[in-house]
Design goal:
By secondary structure, this protein is mainly α. The protein is built from 14 helices and no strands.
């Protein structure tokens, strides 16, 4: 009768199991962060309520700041005790990032809410189908400003997009490392940071040399906006072209395709989605400019479809003039200013949605 041999336990293999259990044993429930946030907000509210009894005013911003600090301290302490120090730091950093995101969203939400609440009162059929010609008090609309904004911005895009696209192609495909390319890059960086009023002064001085001082035309505003758009288009296009893998270019060269045809058929189609997004960002960056258009295109109360003849109204200048030159009743002028601002925001949003749609349609297809 043979005796059964029982192997002794291996101490080397049991240690990692114990360490693993110790590391993963504690875990907070999913509702814990929300509960701690509520407790922190309640404790901070109690503190500020007691303070408000003496001052007579409840400090809402202070309450939010103290609530956030109490929550961060509480979630770190509780998580470090239950889940370990590493998980506690992770939750602390997550809370800091979330709070920073909410702080960054506050101005955007505040501006959007203010414009919508104040601008809705001015919206009507007359507001979109009439101009300010012969309007003294109430009534009138922004049709002339919408037409002027679209025409001036379209002309600026026609001027700036080819220049910016060809400049970026030269910098990436032809002038990499040479002195001229470095000089162009430096000038583009300088142009990116120039104030918009400088672009307006440049366009005004350029046209004043040929037509005399006091000239105002829509095309002048287009030139001023093009000066602001070109560096944005160059930078966006340049970055997108650099993301195209060199293997695609080399494969085209190996087949005997000329360089210019490789750029047209391979490089640009591959990066067209990013280029389109960059162009639309450039348009959104200049469509709301007021100072250069106030100097170059001016303001008028009548319709003007000719960029080369006379003053032309735009939405930002219209909103500025209505707010700064209030008549009787003043509420009508203020409502028209807020309404123009709301329409301008909607146009910018629509342009961004169109850019996303175009980028999705023209993006290179993956797979077969």
């Amino acid at each position: 009768m043979s005796a059964t041999t029982i192997a002794p336990p291996n101490p080397a293999s049991s240690t990692p199991v114990e360490d693993s259990r110790r590391i993963t044993s504690g875990k907070l429930p999913t509702w814990t962060p929300w509960a701690l946030l509520g407790l922190a907000a309640g404790a901070a509210a109690l503190i500020f309520f007691i303070v408000s009894l003496a001052s007579g005013d409840f400090n809402v911003p202070g309450w939010l700041v103290v609530s956030a600090l109490l929550y961060l301290a509480t979630i770190f302490t509780v998580s470090a005790v239950v889940e370990g120090r590493r998980k506690g730091i992770d939750r602390l950093v997550t809370g800091v990032v979330t709070i920073a995101f909410l702080i960054a969203m506050l101005p955007l939400v505040s501006v959007a809410t203010t414009v919508i609440v104040n601008g809705v009162a001015a919206l009507s059929a007359e507001f979109f189908t009439s101009s300010m010609r012969n309007v003294v008090g109430e009534g009138g609309g922004i049709l002339h400003a919408i037409v002027g904004t679209l025409l001036i911005t379209l002309a600026a895009a026609i001027i700036s997009i080819p220049i910016g696209l060809f400049t970026a192609i030269y910098l990436v495909e032809y002038g990499a490392g040479n002195r001229l390319a470095r000089g162009i890059t430096f000038l583009v960086d300088v142009m990116t940071g120039i104030p918009s009023i400088v672009a307006g002064l440049f366009a005004y001085a350029l046209f004043a040399l040929f037509f005399g001082p006091g000239i105002r035309m829509g095309i002048m505003g287009s030139v001023a906006l093009a000066v602001l758009m070109i560096p944005v288009v160059v930078r966006a296009t340049e970055e997108m072209l650099r993301l195209v893998p060199n293997e695609l270019r080399e494969a085209a060269y190996a087949l005997g395709v000329p360089k210019w045809l490789t750029i047209v058929k391979v490089v640009i189609p591959t990066s067209i989605a990013g280029i389109t997004t960059g162009v639309m960002l450039a348009v959104a960056r200049v469509i709301g400019e007021t100072a250069p258009l106030l100097l170059t295109a001016g303001i008028t109360a009548s319709m003007n479809y000719n960029l080369f003849d006379g003053r032309m109204a735009t939405l930002p200048v219209f909103a500025y003039s209505q707010y700064m030159n209030q008549g009787i009743p003043a509420s009508a002028f203020i409502d028209r200013a807020w309404g123009a601002a709301l329409v301008l925001i909607v146009i910018v949003m629509a342009l961004n949605l169109i850019a996303r749609l175009v980028a999705r349609i023209f993006a290179p297809k993956l797979g077969r």
